Amino acid sequence: MLEGRVIKSTGSWYEVETTDGAVYTCRIVGKFRMDGIRITNPVAVGDRVRVELEAGDDTQGLIKEILPRANYVIRQSPKGKVEMHLMASNIDQGVVIATIVQPKLKQGFIDRFLLMLEPYEIPGVVVFNKADLYGEGEMNVYEFLRDIYVSIGYEVVLTSAVNGTGLEELRELFKGKISLISGQSGVGKSSLVNSIQPNLTLRTQDLSDYSGKGMHTTTFAEMYRLDENTSIIDTPGIKSLTFNHLEPQMVAHNFREFFALSEDCRFGGSCLHRNEPGCAVKAALEEGIVSPLRYENYLMILQEVEDQNYWERNKEF
Length: 317
Prior knowledge:
With 317 residues, this protein is an alpha/beta fold. The protein has helices at residues 107-117, 136-151, 167-174, 189-196, 248-253, 256-262, 280-286, 292-307, 310-314; strands spanning 2-9, 14-18, 23-28, 48-53, 60-66, 72-76, 84-89, 93-99, 124-129, 155-158, 178-182, 222-227, 230-234. The chain has three domains: 2-72, CATH 2.40.50.140; 91-234, P-loop containing nucleotide triphosphate hydrolases (Rossmann fold, 3-Layer(aba) Sandwich), CATH 3.40.50.300; 248-314, Ribonucleotide Reductase Protein R1, domain 1. The protein contains nine helices and 13 strands.
């Protein structure tokens, strides 16, 4: 039995790099399940696994065991409302890449990505890319959003693959860590990573002239090594993130500034911060302490979760 880490997933096959640096193409033997979660893929990039080589073939193996995960990140599967897709595991931080222009900013996606990290207290980094395209108005928007996220404990970086803005700062944030990087299509994720580490040459593709929307360039999650102690996990461009696997209380608890304030709510940890009397979050909102943008995104996610039929979300599998 060899021990290694999954560095690429193609749905049915997985590439596993063992501790001696060899890479084997592997498939799964048996059924792997996660307690209480219906998943479409039992193995994720970042998983540490034990592999048995197939008889007569020194290039292929069988994944026989998944070692305990320090953490993992899941998203709702496009295939079904109640199925989840395991994006990555054993990561040190999550990095969401956005831009103010080309394509147009969707600030709600940033909050959804950060919410995806919070259950395991995975540190989050918000990168605003394509700074070379920002005029005065775009810079004002960037500074406004930067202040929101920095105030609640997230790292924020302004970058440009064209003129080099923020690249050194980003390299330092990546250094010595395994980072999951993601973003909506078209934000320049691949170009940015290629600027940090030119030998990776991740595939890039221009914005569609017709729609102005980004076109998908990454098909499967894959881990890339930047140096001996630094790796990134590149994920497909994501159109949207939904959280029908969470209960309403979990949504409230994983907006970090709301959770910090909730101890002062009249109903404590059970407060959903909408119409409850004595809500500290609503009071902070009125005082300008809580971001109205974050609060509106929270309400939208909460409503989506509550609209999902309870019995469908909790049925046996």
